[in-house]
Amino acid sequence: MLLHVIARGKIARSPEAELLDRYAKRITWPFKHSELPDVGGKVPPPVQTPVREVLLDERGKLMSSEEFAELLGRWRDEGVRECRFLIGAADGHGDEARARADHLLCFGRMTWPHLMVRAMLAEQLWRATAILAGHPYHRSG
Asked: What is the layout of strands, in order, in the sheet containing 51-62?
């Protein structure tokens, strides 16, 4: 299953970009990172179908790493070919996008800069795929 991060704003050369790249290289599943301008620009159509859309949103569900891995594993086992993770600009996502999404995911009640969210998401994607593969990286308590 393709893991596709679609984010508003440019990450350019930055410490956050280095973290994103570091974790993206560790993910053994197909991975893609796309950028959109802060305003305007269209979300690219899915590369593969069926597809699931996850919006990173402050109104989203808090999940443990194990729960996140379980969700991705279930979608993979159901035949989902692409899972898209949408990260909004400063104002987040509109009501229409939230209503259309398959899942709203929250990284806590604090507001995080979109550059940090990309790196944190990449790490959690790597962690989830490691959990599903039985890799010892993730140590659950």
From this structure: 31-36, 2-8, 82-87, 51-62, 103-106
Token pair of 44 as six digits: 């690219």
Distance CA 129, CA 68 (A): 10
pTM above 0.85, yes or no: yes
56 is in an annotated binding site: yes
Does 120 show up as a binding residue in the annotation?
A: no
DSSP state of 92: B
- Do the annotations mark residue 20 as ligand-binding? no
100 assigned binding-site residue: no
Is there a binding annotation on residue 116? Answer: no
72, 75, 77, 78 alpha-carbon torsion, rounded to 10°: 180
Whether residue 29 is annotated as binding a ligand: the answer is no
pLDDT digits (tens, 9 = 90+) for 110-137: 888 888 999 999 999 999 999 999 977 6
